[in-house]
Each structure stands twice: as structure tokens, then as C-alpha cells.
Amino acid sequence: MVIVYGTICLDRISPIERLPASGEYVELGKETIALGGEAANTAMLLRAFGADVTLVGNSIGVGSGAEHLRRLLESSGLGDAVFPGGDHDAPVCHIYVEPDGQRTMFGRGFAQMPDRNGLALLPESGGDWICTDGNHGSASIKAIEWAHDRGARAYVMDTLEGAPTRKSDICQTSPNWVDGPDSRGQMHDFAVEWAAQQGCLVLVTLGAGGVIAAMPGGQSWSIPAIECPEIIDSTGAGDAFRSGVLLGLEMGEPMDRCILLGLGAGSLACTNMGALRADRSRLESLLDEAPNQVNNALSAASGLAEAYNSAK
User: Fold this and answer.
1) What is the helix (H) or strand (E) element at residue 240, kind and residue range?
2) Could you tell me which residues come within 8 angstroms of residue 105 by beta carbon, excluding any fewer than 6 positions away?
3) 84-104: b or e for each residue (b if 16 or more CB lie within 10 Å)?
4) Coil, helix or strand for 241?
5) Is the CB of residue 240 less than 8 Å from the CB of residue 45?
6) Is residue 120 part of a domain?
7) Are 248 and 262 within 8 A, CB to CB?
8) Backbone torsion region of residue 187, taken as left when φ is above 0, otherwise alpha when ψ lies between -120 and 50, otherwise beta
9) What's the rounded Cα separation, in Å, for the pair 99 and 48?
10) DSSP of 259-278, one letter per residue?
11) For residue 230, what is the domain's CATH number?
12) What are the DSSP calls for 102-160, one per residue?
């Protein structure tokens, strides 16, 4: 079982031709309102893939926004999600998507998430894995400690400082969360340094640039992406990547195959507005239709499975 702990929110997504200059007006396209948040996105896709998932999130508040969130959770197959109550508006992320799929985000209710956490609602069993994300801050760190106490491994997303990771854990982030490095070479150096600091496998997702994987001993791999059939919106692509990797881990696949599943899921996530809703057959079809890209990714990841297994 995978316990997905972290962010649940409403996503309000609008296409936009370009971001306006200061004081300028730019027309928005038709708005899409969707289930959002790193935890909700990950849990929704894992469940669609057929994995055993428990979603534990932050309070979603009260009022019309919270009721809309409840309906979206139910329709996404996550009606059994657990979260604390709270007398506040639902957390909302406003997302503006440009024609190349890149997006700019503004949020409300995220700064309060560490204090509106669902730590007390975590199940007695730690499962096989727990996922956390950076929005819950110190509460995510406590969730990692909770999982370790129960023999579970942690898949830590975007918590760059203070995460008490162990050698069998995984850390994932992207350039959006890293202050400083902006070139691929700099991101590679960051990945190697972060792996040494955390003592576990590190994955830095680079969108169309694939992923950089690094192990604490200094080994690293630059793995190419699986090409996206049609880029519409990159929202939730990192969450989809995490879902694909976890699907592989739950299936007992070697780490190179897990990364491949993550790359495929991340690619699919960019083909629709908002986070991905797709079953495992769609993921498998994408990979079946791109044998050369699959071989290139697996070749670039050669040795990663052995390194990860040796470390844990």
C-alpha cells in the first residue's frame, strides 16, 4: 500500500496567450476547475493505475469551494480520502497556462497547510511507502518520521531541507523548487550534492529534458524523456512522474523500469488541461508506441537498478 500524504486543493486553470506586462490586460481562455494538489494528483493517478492507495491530506475547509472539492474527490475515485475539518475557505491554486504548456501559479491557503495537516489521521499501518510534498513543511517531516517508525519507505517531494531520509528512500524535485541552478549541468551538480546530503536516491525532473538520477556515492544518470504526443498543460507532470515510479515499485520492477514508467506518466500528464486521469493501459500504449525512446531511456539508466538495490 502507498500512503499519499500532503496537498489537496482546487485548481482553477485558464489558458493564456502570454503573461501580461505590468498594468497590461490579457484575455483568459475558458477556465477548467479540477482536483489539484501534489497528493491528490498522485493518489488519483495511482488509483487509476490499480495501486492500493490511501490519501491523507490537509483540511479542505468549508463553503462552496470545499463542497466542490468533495465532489471532485468522489468523482476521481478518492471518496475515501481523509482530512481534518477546518473553518476556512478551501485552498485554491490559480494556474495560467501558456501555449507551450508552461504555467504560472498563484495560490491561497497554502501557507497555512502545515497547521491544517492530517497527521493525526494517518493509518496505523505504515504501508510500503509514504509520499510527502513540500507544501506541508514541518508536518511532512513528521510524516516521514512516522513512516520510518512503522518500517515504511518515504518518497519525499520538494522538501529540500530537514527531511530525515534513509538510504532506501527517494527524493524528487524540479528546477522550480531549487534556488540557484538554472542549467542542466548545474542541476546535475545539485542532484549529486543533494544525494550525498540526503543519503538516498535523488531524482530531478526536467520536463522535456527527462530526469537526472543520483546516488549518494556520486553515481549519476541523465535519462531522456519520453516525448509528449501533444503538449497542452504541464500541470501535475511531476506528480504523474512520481505516480509512475511508485507504480513500478509496487509492481516489484527494477528502478530503471520504474523511472521509465515515471517518464511515460509525466509525458501523458502534459496532454490535457489539469492533472492526468488515465489508466495503466494508456501508459503502456504510449511506451509500446515509442520503442526507440524506451530503449534510449533504459540504456541511459543502465546500472541504476543495481546501485539502488545495493544501497538499500
Assistant:
1) helix 237-251
2) 93, 94, 95, 96
3) eebebbbbbbebbbeeebebe
4) helix
5) yes
6) yes
7) yes
8) alpha
9) 28
10) HHHHHHHHHHHTTSSSS---
11) 3.40.1190.20
12) -EEEEEESSTTGGGS--GGG--SS--SEEEEEGGGTHHHHHHHHHHHHTT-EEEEES--
Query: Does a structural domain hold residue 288?
Result: yes
How far CA 224 is from CA of 143, 204, 231, 297, in Å, comes to 32, 12, 17, 6
The Cα–Cα gap between 84 and 66 comes to: 12
The count of C-alpha atoms lying within 13 angstroms of the C-alpha of 70, restricted to the half-sphere facing its C-beta, is: 12
Q: Which three cell numbers stand for residue 161?
A: 531541507
pTM over 0.90: yes
CB 116 within 8 A of CB 86: yes
Integer CA distances (angstroms), 193 to 77, 130, 187, 215, 245, in order: 39, 24, 10, 9, 22
Cα–Cα distance for residue pair 113/118, rounded to 1 Å: 10
What's the domain count of the chain? 1
Per-residue pLDDT of the chain in tens (312 residues, 90 and over written 9):
999 999 999 999 999 999 999 999 999 999 999 999 999 999 999 999 999 999 999 999 999 999 999 999 999 999 999 999 999 999 999 999 999 988 999 999 999 999 999 999 999 887 899 999 999 999 999 999 999 999 999 999 998 888 999 999 999 999 888 876 667 888 999 999 999 999 999 999 999 999 999 999 999 999 999 999 888 888 889 999 999 999 999 999 999 999 999 999 999 998 988 777 778 999 999 999 999 999 999 999 999 999 999 887
25 assigned to some structural domain: no
Nearest to 130 by CA among 199, 39, 257, 195: 39
Domain that holds residue 97: 2-20+30-311
- 236 inside domain: yes
